[in-house]
């Protein structure tokens, strides 16, 4: 009787061990599954956020990440303010005071020649060495690299122009026509110097403001882009799709 009870107890213990082993394996598998499902990192979530002009890098990297980017984004406020102040002084000098460029160049050259002449003839009396006019030595490699880069950009521009004028990309054609029309209207309001100065001011203010408020600007830009695309789809369905298009080679052949 005692032996039967011991056998029953050992059987119960073995059953309990099997149950606990199954529970343990289930927990381990569930924990491994949960570990396999990695949480979404904040960087991947941030990458899915709409950014203006489809950029994937910070604004500072978009502008090159060097000293020009530091100036445009006001990393060094003294240099940025100095550049903006210099541009403002040039605009005031030529636009408001109506000082002519040729007159300014001539006056600067007259002043420089007069100073050099007096210095050259009076250096014996003031115990100073005569002025040394330096020689300019420029390496050829940077100019060749710039020329090669310009050649590539010009060829790409001509390729885009070829696609536009042959009717392959009607959307670009309409965008270029609209841009030139707007630019002609703006050009009738002010001269080239004022237009250049306004562009310079916008280039030194808009990027830093966008970098500061990009979390508020990007959602608004996303809504605006969605509305523009929706209106373009309607315009394409009603107007553009009815215009015959294709390369000129097919017509000439």
Task: Describe this entry's structure for a reader.
Helices cover 75% and strands 0% of the residues. Helix 5 runs antiparallel to helix 9. It starts with a helix and ends with a helix.
Main β-sheet description: none
Structural class: mainly alpha
Helices and strands, in order, run as HHHHHHHHHHH
What does the average pLDDT come to? 75
How many distinct helices? Answer: 11
Given as residue ranges, the uncertain stretches (5+ residues, pLDDT < 50) are 1-9, 26-47, 248-253
CA-to-CA gap between the ends?
Answer: 109 Å
Strand content: under 5%
Q: What proportion of the residues is helical, as a percent range?
A: over 70%
Shape: elongated
DSSP E strands, number: 0
Output the radius of gyration.
Answer: 36 Å
Which helices and strands occur, and which strands form pairs?
Elements: H1 2-36, H2 42-47, H3 59-62, H4 67-72, H5 77-96, H6 101-122, H7 140-165, H8 170-189, H9 192-212, H10 214-238, H11 248-252
Helix pairs in contact: 5-9
Looking at this protein, list some descriptive labels:
single chain, mainly alpha, 11 helices
A few lines on this structure:
This protein has helices at residues 2-36, 42-47, 59-62, 67-72, 77-96, 101-122, 140-165, 170-189, 192-212, 214-238, 248-252. By secondary structure, it is an all-alpha fold.
């Amino acid at each position: 009787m005692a032996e039967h009870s011991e056998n029953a107890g050992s059987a119960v213990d073995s059953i309990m061990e099997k149950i606990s082993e199954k529970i343990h394996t289930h927990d381990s598998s569930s924990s491994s599954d949960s570990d396999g499902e990695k949480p979404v990192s904040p960087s991947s979530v941030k990458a899915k956020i709409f950014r203006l002009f489809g950029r994937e890098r910070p604004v500072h990297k978009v502008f090159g990440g060097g000293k020009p980017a530091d100036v445009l984004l006001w990393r060094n406020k003294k240099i940025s303010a100095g550049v903006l102040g210099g541009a403002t002084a040039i605009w005031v000098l030529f636009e408001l005071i109506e000082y002519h460029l040729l007159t300014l160049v001539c006056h600067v050259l007259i002043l420089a020649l007069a100073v050099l002449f007096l210095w050259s003839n009076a250096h014996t009396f003031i115990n100073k060495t005569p002025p040394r006019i330096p020689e300019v030595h420029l390496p050829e490699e940077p100019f060749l690299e710039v020329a090669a880069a310009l050649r590539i950009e010009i060829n790409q521009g001509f390729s885009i122009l070829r696609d536009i004028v042959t009717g392959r990309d009607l959307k670009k054609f309409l965008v270029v026509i609209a841009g030139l029309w707007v630019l002609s209207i703006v050009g009738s309001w002010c001269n080239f110097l004022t237009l250049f100065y306004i562009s310079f001011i916008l280039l030194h203010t808009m990027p830093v403001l966008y970098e500061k408020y990009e979390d508020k600007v990007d959602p608004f830009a996303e809504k605006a882009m969605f509305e523009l695309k929706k209106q373009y789809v309607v315009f394409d369905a009603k107007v553009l799709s009815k215009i015959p298009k294709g390369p000129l080679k097919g017509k000439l052949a």
